[in-house]
Amino acid sequence: MDVNQYMQQLGQQARASATAMARASTDNKNKALIAIASDIEQQREALHQANAADLDNGKTKGLDDAPLDRLELTDARIDTMIEGLHQVASLADPVGEITDLSRRPSGIQVGKMRVPLGVIGIIYESRPNVTIEAASLCLKSGNATILRGGSEAIASNRMLAGCIRNGLAATGLPVDAVQVVETTDRAAVGQLITMPEYVDVIMPRGGKGLIERISAEAKVTVIKHLDGICHVFIDEHADSAKAVNIAINAKTHRYGTCNTMETLLIHRAVANELLPELASAYGSLGVELRGCDASRAIVNDMLAATDADWDTEYLAPILSVRVVDSIDQAIEHINRHGSHHTDSIVSENYTNTQRFLMEVDSSSVMINASTRFADGFEYGLGAEIGISTDKIHARGPVGLDGLTSQKYVVLGNGEVRK
Amino acid sequence: MDVNQYMQQLGQQARASATAMARASTDNKNKALIAIASDIEQQREALHQANAADLDNGKTKGLDDAPLDRLELTDARIDTMIEGLHQVASLADPVGEITDLSRRPSGIQVGKMRVPLGVIGIIYESRPNVTIEAASLCLKSGNATILRGGSEAIASNRMLAGCIRNGLAATGLPVDAVQVVETTDRAAVGQLITMPEYVDVIMPRGGKGLIERISAEAKVTVIKHLDGICHVFIDEHADSAKAVNIAINAKTHRYGTCNTMETLLIHRAVANELLPELASAYGSLGVELRGCDASRAIVNDMLAATDADWDTEYLAPILSVRVVDSIDQAIEHINRHGSHHTDSIVSENYTNTQRFLMEVDSSSVMINASTRFADGFEYGLGAEIGISTDKIHARGPVGLDGLTSQKYVVLGNGEVRK
Q1: Most CB atoms closer than 10 Å: which of A86, A161, A328, B193?
Q2: What is the pLDDT of residue A393?
């Protein structure tokens, strides 16, 4: 069978499983999640062996330390996968929730019911723990899933696929409700993203290049997270202590995360007071500053920012700094250079905070809080399959609700249109 | 300027206007809608002249009566456009609505704010009244819009575009917030649907062929309505009077609408009792019946349905009829042959109604009500830009809310991530 036929077969099987998944009981889905967790525990040794084979191949291929680290399934990571499955089992089931039910003049009651999306394709890099994370959230939300992990993790993913099938089979759910693509042929991705008859939505997780390529070629809706160029704007009416705390935390709490601040905007009226203190704090934490001319006039040893800096996601201890003349300029900068991910204003001025909230076009907009809070767990979603920087369907952290949509339900008593 | 450059210019202007539209006050948007209505009233004669030119050209081109009728702007239709603008002005503004605001353990409050999508591209056929309908809903929901109507309506649409610009200018809103494509070059559509940098979502209105073509070629999310193959299922536990009323109304209230029933499914246990009565009622209303073998064994003069009938949207006084053995078979038939638009069960059995509600994968699922209720006005949306048979973002009738999305808002008091 060629790879396109193989993918079509996976698609057909996923579509066929989606109906049973949509009507699966919460209890059955939870039991399947627990059964998968048990199976992973039982197969821990076999999983280590499969993962060791992946790691050996990766080393032979000359993978760097960072990807090798992401590829490794340590006992701690296996424990986390098992805990994650139990945690997803403990979350409320979004499927079937009816909201906004109201009676219309005709007599009918109209409301909305939350239902699974159908078949979700997930494309990700060589991190086998994502296989379980993604599978568990899609399963709980009643979707069928096709998982396409990085080729370096193929042996680990095959083992995990077996655990998932065992768990599904043990609870009477269709074993094809979660399928792992078991070929490393790159054509599999091309086929997966162009089968709207079998796949309802694609969620890629990985580098910006991968996601842009998938978006350009997909014939299916892609819920995507491109990059996180996040800003903190210190307004002229900022509380100084809050401003410093938030600016330091948003940059230095973690450097490699998408909700880390990459550019600090500061109002000219408070730049003289706050920039030296901030520069000193950043300096002592090893953060390199790259500033506009006005910033460098205040903090002389700052490097000069280039045009490219405003559009760069550093994911590193580097911060660009710009002095702005007004909140308008700050909002304009963010909407132009940001990635519509997460941006925060520090201000005590009511009108400015409300304008920022309304006018900044990002998936998370904050007042007096660190951008690092943009996270499914911090938002109370219980879990997160990713963060969407799209505008359609789901924005921001995507939890179980983001894996569902709402259909209309009409409850009548024999009503007809007059 | 070539057509691609022209469309890119419209795109840039739309994108530039979208920011101002997103923060426009409700009052300003309402005033603009009223001003557009006044301008249409003032230019009624010029509008008739432009429309007469379109009609003349249409006749010369050999258009049939039906498209010529859709193209015509009678005084009644102009009145309806004017009333529509006033009505949209009276609707609640969805932009800025904050919901689900709750406090998290960290101290931050997290909620969702409704915001415009940005730039919406609308592609439709030669019905100039759609220009005003679509423009008014997009304007009220704070979006910028690019409208591409059928080429036969170009003179009428140019006039209406002028009225819209005058109304926007009179209230200080950006005049490029609503732009009508003023070329009939077909390449304009191809460009419009492949500019994700300027257009956030495409909503085509028209025939299935047009929409399928657009979906296949678009590089932007398409919110689409393909067809309306709607079902009524008369369960074995149906109330006979409700069943007959609903089955007659769903088919015969109007024949050409997408929420009209095209296939009647009836449980074998009640087919002998109800089918003859229904056949007689349909017969007296001039509806042609095409049945399965079991149906024809009960009503002998029914035509035989072919396989193609189950997949056909007649939009005509024709109904296909199938006897099913169980609710499972009914649900299976609907999910396989339907268009995920609107389907209704007639039943007094609690479990069957709940199963139907959960398991039928359509944008509107009904119990004991006519499918004809699937409509933005009947659902209380106030207005409707179309009905989505998609699963992503918006399902069913799309009103002002469907032209917005929700971003996360975080209200803090200096909180940082620990």
Answers
A1: B193
A2: 87
3-class SS of residue B399: coil
Write out residues 262-301 of B within 8 Å (CB-CB) of A. Answer: none
pLDDT of residue B209: 85
Provide the shortest C-alpha distance from residue B394 to chain A (in Å). Answer: 7
CA dihedral A282, A288, A290, A291 (to 10 degrees): 20
Kindly state whether residues B276 and B171 are assigned to the same domain.
no
Taking CB atoms and an 8 Å limit, are A118 and B361 in contact across chains?
A: yes
Measured CA to CA in angstroms, residue A157 lies from A53, A94, A277, A383 at distances of: 12, 27, 49, 21
Domain assignment present for A379: no
Instruction: Give the CATH number for residue A264.
Output: 3.40.309.10
* Confidence (pLDDT) at B396: 94
Q: Could A102 and B201 be called an inter-chain contact, meaning their C-beta atoms sit closer than 8 Å?
A: no
Is B59 in CB contact (< 8 Å) with chain A?
A: no
So what's the ipTM on this one?
Answer: 0.93
**Nearest-angstrom CA–CA distance, B67 and B61:** 12
**What 3-state class would DSSP assign to A217?**
helix
pLDDT digits (tens, 9 = 90+) for B153-164: 999 999 999 999
Answer whether A412 sits within 8 Å of B368, measured CB to CB: yes
Residue of B200, B359, B411 with shortest CB distance to A391: B200
Q: Is the pLDDT of residue B226 over 80?
A: no
Structural domain of B311: 230-373
- pLDDT for position B224: 85
B285, B391, B403, B411: best mutation site toward chain A, by most A Cβ within 10 Å?
B391
